[in-house]
Specification:
7 helices; 2 domains; 8% strand; 3 strands
């Protein structure tokens, strides 16, 4: 019996090795997501809110909402609501400005308060990244990255 089968207390073997691999990915993702979400909560953020702030800081200039949504790590169905919450935080972590060229476009920028939160979060987040992957060698990490990218290919090419 494999480790995941044992963890899940699954009596029957998985239907196929592909199923076991996918369920291992889901379980691993869930465990990591939970641990990172706990850290973000300490700073008053959700993982999705952190993701938006990270994108805005990295770009260094205002971005339209739809472009922010395209750049997120995980699919964010309610980007407008997330930006609302960041804008309504005390103090506001983002601000919105209507485009002068096209009034239909609303650009979002990170505020100084948003930059400050990310600045306080940077070191603990980097430490958590390192701790989560400390048991891997650099070569293993490179291989893991390669395999995960390969795993995503059919999804991104919409062949599944």
């Amino acid at each position: 019996m494999g480790k995941l089968q044992d963890e899940l207390q699954k009596r029957e073997p998985f239907a196929c090795v592909e199923q076991e691999a996918i369920l291992n990915l889901f379980r691993t993702s869930d465990r990591l997501h939970h641990r990172f979400a706990r850290l973000f909560r300490e700073y008053g953020l959700t993982p999705s809110q952190y993701n938006i702030l990270r994108i805005l800081r990295g770009e260094g200039k205002p971005l339209p909402c739809l472009e922010i949504a395209q750049r997120t790590i995980t699919v964010v169905p309610g980007i407008t609501g997330l930006i609302d919450r960041l804008e309504n935080a005390t103090p506001p972590l983002v601000s919105r400005q209507r485009s002068e060229e096209d009034r239909r476009i609303v650009n979002v920028s990170i505020t100084q308060a948003g930059l400050d939160v990310l600045g306080r979060l940077d070191a603990p987040l980097l430490e958590l990244h390192r701790k989560a992957m400390a048991h891997f060698s650099p070569e293993e990490l490179a291989e893991l990255i390669r395999l995960l990218e390969k795993t995503r290919q059919p999804c991104e090419q919409e062949t599944i």
